[in-house]
Amino acid sequence: MKTPKSLEPRLAWPRAYNEAPMWARLRQNHLVVPVLVLLLGIAVAVFTWLTTSRNEAFRRELAFDGVGQRNARRITEAVEERADLLRQVRALYVADGDVGEERFMRFVGELMLTGRTKSTSVVMFAVPREGGIFADVVMPARAATRWSGVDMLADVAFADALERSLTRADITASAPISTGTGDEDMLTLLAVPVFKRPGAAPSEARGSEVVGYLVAIVSVDALLDDAFADIHALEDVRHHAVSVTDVSDTSAAVPFASFGAEAIDATPATREVIHVFDRSWSVDTKRVTVDEQTISDFLQRPSTTLSACIFLVVTLCAHIAYALNRQRALVQKEVESRTSELRQKNLLLERHERELAKVNLKLLEQSHTDPLTELMNRRGFEEHLEQERQRTGRTGVPYGLLIFDVDNFKSFNDHYGHVAGDEVLKRVAHIIYGEARRIDCVARFGGEEFVILASATDAVGLLALGERVRERIQEAAIPHVKSPLEVVTVSGGGALSKVDAEHDPKPVLEIADRCLYEAKATGKNRVVMRM
User: Fold this and answer.
1) Which residue spans within 130-254 are E strands per DSSP?
2) Is 29-290 a domain of CATH 2.120.10.30?
3) Separation CA 84–CA 438 (nearest Å)
4) How far apart are CA 484 and CA 333, in angstroms?
5) Rounded CA gap, 173 and 256, in Å?
6) pLDDT tens by residue, 157-216
7) Would you say residue 296 has pLDDT above 50?
8) Could you write out the DSSP letters of every residue in 348-411?
9) What's residue 238's pLDDT?
10) What percent of the chain has pLDDT over 70?
11) Which of 29, 151, 243, 300 is the most buried if burial means most Cβ atoms within 10 Å?
12) Is residue 140 reached through a cis peptide bond, with omega within 30 degrees of 0 on the bond before it?
């Protein structure tokens, strides 16, 4: 097909023009490429600034919504920390019955020192007497001058909380009341009853069943100080105000505590309702300050910084990117090859390390475990004994040691055989492990001897544990015709440690061992203990 003559002039480009196209001629001008790169940088920077500015505004609104939820969660956790103190003290009463004033004050004092409840104003044990419910034992001691002997029923809010705690047989909170000292600090009462019969249901809770009430008088301002004590919480409320309102009774719902900025303006607020046991508190969070758009603030905004950085990077790097592109591609290919090779080696090395760690862990467990009873062996027991000695030195709370020996075990082996003897040791070990607490250490001491290392105990609890183990083994009724009772029994010896950090645990073992021999010598099937 021939080309029409009318098109020939258009297709026949000048030879000189074909040799030097427009782009090649423009590249000869050193100002063209920098100007194009600068315009591109300005366009990208402006687009980035517009986009990030909108995202910043959206994140500020989203963060404000999250502040209210976090504030409500912090206040709830602060209340629960104080309620946990009452639960632990009630558990002490349930376990031991009559605790006594000295032990109550020591136990509560340790909890207040080791926990995060230092801002709890008062913890007391109130007992019902004729004419009211009076505070009997008060912690800390400095608060006894104000609260000791005070009738809890004298205040309507306190009386209502005590009555509801008796009905629910659980912790209740009172309506906030003024301290009566002229300041704006408010108090709330947390109360839980202690019954003569542990575990009494709310329907069974009656006044005659109540031994007393465990009461915590909590300062609401101190509660908020603890809730917002960490740096993240303070950052959340730096430009916000938090107010707390008791909305259990909507007719009298007025704020009774606040935290953060003092003035609350008409900006929108987020409201979160939390449940303080059987009462409801509303936590309102308001934004009270508006960011001032100074030059310094404008320059520190991420949108401004990011846009400036993008413009600078594009301007400086785009001019040399084309020249380095081919070299970078070659380097990148080499790096990827080396990286892939190193990654494979690292994966193989990590796999070998994990396998080695599993083998080491298994060997460690085997070295500390008795193969017959699957209890801790003597080596593991001695390590736990040293740890318990150090803990006693730090806390001042003694530990106890119980050594048990299966009675007439040699005659059992002679009559039934060693295989049956091994089964008896397994059953005895299982019973002892089941009766010990989770914090206790149970080990096979050697042969037919077993040991319990009871952490943080006293003489009464240690002796009760020993008797409980002895009774459970006797009740298991493992046949033993060579025994006086014709069942397998154990004898035990116990000892309580001292609280000296440098005290050698060997005398404790020796005392417990002598007590064991005394139990054997005085008839067996008994537990003897010495302090």
Assistant:
1) 132-139, 172-173, 177-178, 186-195, 210-219, 240-246
2) no
3) 20
4) 86
5) 15
6) 888 888 898 888 889 998 888 876 555 678 888 998 988 766 555 555 555 678 888 898
7) yes
8) HHHHHHHHHHHHHHHHHHHHTB-TTT-SB-HHHHHHHHHHHHHHHHHH----EEEEEEETTHHH
9) 66
10) 75
11) 243
12) yes
CA neighbours closer than 13 Å in the CB half-sphere of residue 297: 5
Closest of 531, 424, 426, 410 to residue 482, by C-alpha: 410
Q: What is the dihedral of CA 69, 70, 71, 76, to 10 degrees?
A: 90
> 378-530, what's its fold?
Alpha-Beta Plaits (3.30.70)
8 Å CB contact between 366 and 451: no
Q: Which residues contact 162 (CB under 8 A, 6 or more apart)?
A: 133, 152, 153, 172, 191, 193, 213
CA-based nearest residue to 451, from 386, 385, 497: 385
Strand partners, 281: 246, 274
- pLDDT category at 227 given cuts 50, 70, 90 is confident
Other Cβ atoms closer than 10 A to 138: 26
Can you read off the two tokens belonging to residue 139? 């912690």
Q: Do the beta carbons of residue 442 and residue 436 sit within 8 Å?
A: yes
Helix (H, G, I), strand (E, B) or coil at 37: helix
Separation of alpha carbons 125 and 365, rounded Å: 46
- Interval 10-37: pLDDT, tens: 444 444 444 456 655 555 555 666 667 7
- Tokens 């258009």 identify what position? 10
User: From CA 495, how far away is CA 487, in angstroms rounded?
Assistant: 27
- Tokens linked to 275: 């449940």
Hey, CA dihedral for 140, 161, 242, 76, is it positive or negative?
positive
**How far are the Cα atoms of 106, 158, 387, 445, 498 from residue 390, in angstroms, in the given order?**
20, 44, 5, 21, 12
* Cα–Cα distance for residue pair 252/491, rounded to 1 Å: 66
* Contact between 134 and 127 (Cβ < 8 Å): yes
